[in-house]
Amino acid sequence: MLSTTERTRLRRLGERARTDREDLYDVLDAGLVCHLGVVVDGSPRVIPTGYGRIDDTLYLHGSTGARSLRTDGEICVTVTHLDGIVLARSAMHHSMNYRSAVVYGTPRPVTDPDEHLAALRAITEQLAPGQWDAVRPPNRKELAATAVLALPLAEASVKVRTGPPKDDDEDYALPVWAGVQPVRTVFGEPEPDPRLSPARPVPAHIHGRSTRSSAR
Amino acid sequence: MLSTTERTRLRRLGERARTDREDLYDVLDAGLVCHLGVVVDGSPRVIPTGYGRIDDTLYLHGSTGARSLRTDGEICVTVTHLDGIVLARSAMHHSMNYRSAVVYGTPRPVTDPDEHLAALRAITEQLAPGQWDAVRPPNRKELAATAVLALPLAEASVKVRTGPPKDDDEDYALPVWAGVQPVRTVFGEPEPDPRLSPARPVPAHIHGRSTRSSAR
């Protein structure tokens, strides 16, 4: 179960909340990009970046020189999947179907070499499953240049909206189409690097992914 | 042109920066969801939400009771499009092709009734073009319950990455497939509300959208 803190308790629309840890894993594991929130000089900064998960730890990486990773305080990591546009009979009941996870915490710089490498593997595999074992692993110089932060999955909220619009009772009689327009993330046909030998086929772990109907 | 401030100047990978205002408009106008960053009790909070744009103003809305909109200070709004997964010959050169916009500023609560209504229209049309004129407009009670913030598009950065991986020179000889796996956001077939009369056809502005190949 996910514990509820003041800021992870949903003040409004509580029926959208999910409290199982598996729901959190599902949302995080299905994502490709997270939005990392940090406070810089008192102001919020939100940047898209990759991530990975091992058990109850979320990993982020960046250049050792990147300012967004040199944070002292708390960070917030949000992963959002847009699943549909909810088309209601009235303008103000338009909405989205989505799954989102918001994780709060103070990250820990990863210094242990084994954990550092495992985290980089998780981040790479999150983006491109099967790639880690297919490509050149990081060398010493690359490892030294890459900072990794570990964020415990201790304080998080998960929200999910599904289903048709919820219109006002009197609006159901309006002569207006209503429903959901599904939104999906799909993979296209892999595009070879122009510098690649044409004879080299697309590996199964990449090609197989491109034929899936959704990035979930 | 977008002016450059300390935090919108790209410290690293400067070749990804875009400085034309049209590039900012393109990224914002192609989006469905933004990630809104606020500072609450000194900590960052990042939540997904809808938005709209009119000229050089970005609009956000929410319940008048929502804490995320009762912010005194600066906010950050980020819109990200993931266009592809960059599959390199080495693990650490894996990357993403993307377009992102990051807007900083102190929002202004919208109190003028005409601007308030125009902003709600822009937010609805961003999510579902053509819907505003097809559905019941907001009534007085709904308008009173909906807060709108206006964020000037004055300080923003746009980043775009395209193209194949950039591998280390010596890695191009490795027997590894490399290239880009495209990622696209697509609309599915509209799903009618179960409470809708089956005789009501899907309007052209919705059906037409579902046949496009991309949400851009």
TrEMBL record, chains A, B:
Q: Which organism is it from?
A: Actinocorallia aurantiaca
Recorded hits in Gene3D superfamilies, A to Z, give: Electron Transport, Fmn-binding Protein, Chain A
Compositionally skewed regions (Basic residues) per UniProt: 206-216
Q: For the region Disordered, what residue ranges are annotated? A: 185-216
Q: Entry's Pfam families?
A: Pyridox_ox_2
This chain belongs to the protein called Pyridoxamine 5'-phosphate oxidase family protein
